From TrEMBL:
PANTHER family: TRANSPOSASE FOR INSERTION SEQUENCE ELEMENT IS1557 (PTHR33498:SF1). It comes from the Bacteria. Pfam families: DDE_Tnp_ISL3 (PF01610), Zn_ribbon_ISL3 (PF14690). Residues 126-215, 385-501 form the Transposase IS204/IS1001/IS1096/IS1165 DDE domain. It comes from Rhodocytophaga aerolata. Residues 8-52 form the Transposase IS204/IS1001/IS1096/IS1165 zinc-finger domain. InterPro entries: Transpos_ISL3, Transposase_DDE, Transposase_Znf. This is ISL3 family transposase. Gene3D superfamilies: Homeodomain-like.
Length: 506
């Protein structure tokens, strides 16, 4: 309950001590240890003593942290506003419940929409860039104060007229950074002809990389042939495979008995590893050795031979020559062959014999696989990045190919020299040398389009090579804007997005 003996009329501002009635008012304060806190106020109503005042009865005002009609203190509202600016409606509602200040999503958004934006000022350096509401379809424009590193304004489109109108309404801008868009360039020239324009250096390097991709498109045949040559030089020569039947014959002469199946698996393992070293694929090896690709893959991953823990106890391999002879004589009945070899000492079962005869007669051993065609696929983008880098930055895998291509193609060598010089001028801030570089690069057909584009925006590009200002801050603000936009799941309006981007900038 208030300790004051009188109230002040909100219209005539005259004090009054005549009490009309009392009522209770419940307001929310900041939580304590995650628990909600509510204050119960005993408020009074007064008679206004001025006969000429139209307000006959008024309620006492508390002032300070509690305004009229509010159900929470200003400090609690300020905390909800901060949560709304950082997280938005639904996520902010969840956080307020966890903190002990529960409100609905509608309340969070209502408080957010009541936020007043900071007063706009006219900075000396401004960054301009576009952002996507819906990628490929709807775009907007963001303007950033490069000195204070804060966003200035969001525009609902990226039309030149919209930007031009905003710049005319804020005279005094001395420098603007932008991308290579001629829409922005023309708007800035029309609104601020005295302002210095600085092109974005990242976009210049991106344009150079795109020029390289078009150049490499015309060299795909050379790249493919060179990649094949590089792959062949790293391969071992193909060798003649030993005849498997001779291996089995030696095992039979050695009378290895029950260990014979493991020895056969070891022979297959050696053949697979030998072909693997020569660069052949699993599919080719499986087809060549008549093996399952799963088995070949298992051998590929094994560094050493792993014998089976429980070998099959069968002596069928000892009767292979007899079975082959009977097969050539025309006997293909499994039961008949089973009775004959059992009379000779076979101790195994019929399923083992049936699986053995499934691929009978054995294929004649092939003379060996041809040399593997080991050719790596390189994208134009990855190669364009590499050609614009110093040799010490090259990837070890790509380095032989890049060196071979430069030896074979004077065109690529000349383009690389021009690209490295372009990057060096940019890094060393030698804008005065850009014109000379353009004259030499313009005589090179592969870079003619790139040089023509620089000539159309030469002053801004030269400033990019000389000035310390860049559009990097603007790109960072665009990334932040994307994060805020995705938190809102596309359901919020442009007004709400603008509030969150601009009001939460400090």
């Amino acid at each position: 309950m208030s300790t004051s003996h009188h109230g002040i009329c909100p219209l005539c501002r005259q004090p009054s001590s005549r009490i009309h009635s009392y009522y209770s008012r419940k307001v929310t304060d900041l939580p304590i240890s995650g628990k909600s806190v509510h204050l119960l106020l005993h408020a009074r109503k007064f008679f206004c003593a001025q006969a000429c005042c139209p307000r006959k009865i008024f309620t006492e005002r508390w002032g300070g942290d509690l305004m009229s009609y509010q159900r929470r203190l200003n400090r609690a509202t300020a905390q909800i506003r901060s949560i709304a600016l950082m997280m938005g409606g639904n996520p902010g509602t969840k956080l307020t419940h966890l903190l002990g200040l529960p409100v609905s999503a509608s309340t969070v958004l209502r408080i957010l929409k009541q936020t007043s934006l900071p007063s706009q000022h006219t900075p000396k350096a401004v960054g301009v860039d576009d952002f996507a509401f819906k990628k490929g379809r709807i775009y907007g424009t963001i303007l950033v104060d490069l000195e204070k590193r804060k966003p200035l304004e969001l525009l609902q489109d990226r039309e030149g007229k919209t930007l031009e109108d905003w710049l005319k309404a804020h005279p005094g801008i001395e420098l603007l950074t932008r991308d290579r868009s001629f829409v922005y360039a023309n708007a800035i020239t029309a609104a601020c002809p005295q302002a210095v324009q600085v092109a974005d250096r990242w976009h210049l390097l991106k344009n150079l990389s795109e020029q390289w991709e078009r150049l490499l498109d015309s060299q795909r045949t050379l790249i493919g042939q060179t990649a094949l040559e590089i792959g062949q030089t790293h391969l071992k020569p193909s060798v003649q495979l030993p005849d498997l039947s001779s291996v089995i014959a030696k095992l039979e002469q050695a009378n290895v008995g029950d260990d014979l199946p493991s020895e056969k698996r070891y022979g297959k393992y050696q053949q697979v590893k030998q072909l693997q070293e020569e660069g052949h694929s699993m599919r080719a090896i499986a087809r060549h050795l008549a093996m399952s690709r799963r088995t070949v893959g298992k051998y590929f991953n094994q560094e050493r031979f792993v014998p089976k823990t429980k070998t099959k106890r069968s002596n069928l391999l000892k009767f292979d020559s007899y079975l082959l002879q009977r097969w050539k004589e025309g006997e293909a009945n499994g039961n008949t062959l089973l009775r004959e070899i059992r009379a000779l000492g076979y101790t195994g079962s019929y399923p083992i014999l049936r699986n053995w005869l499934a691929n009978y007669p054995p294929r004649a051993n092939e003379q060996g696989l041809p040399i593997a065609d080991r050719r790596y696929a390189y994208s134009n983008r990855s190669l364009s990045f590499a050609f614009c880098q110093a040799e010490k930055e090259w990837d070890t895998e790509k380095k032989p190919l890049l060196e071979k291509l430069l030896q074979k193609s004077p065109l690529l060598q000349q383009a690389r020299e021009l690209s490295l010089e372009f990057k060096s001028l940019m890094e060393q801030k030698k804008g005065e040398c850009l014109e000379n570089w353009c004259q030499r690069a313009g005589q090179f057909p592969a870079f003619a389009g790139f040089v023509r584009g620089i000539g159309q925006d030469f002053q801004a590009v030269q400033q990019a090579f000389s000035s310390s200002w860049s559009n990097g801050q603007t790109e960072g603000q665009v990334n932040r804007l994307k994060t805020i936009k995705r938190q809102m799941y596309g359901r919020a309006s442009f007004t709400l997005l603008r509030l969150r981007v601009l009001a939460d900038s400090g």
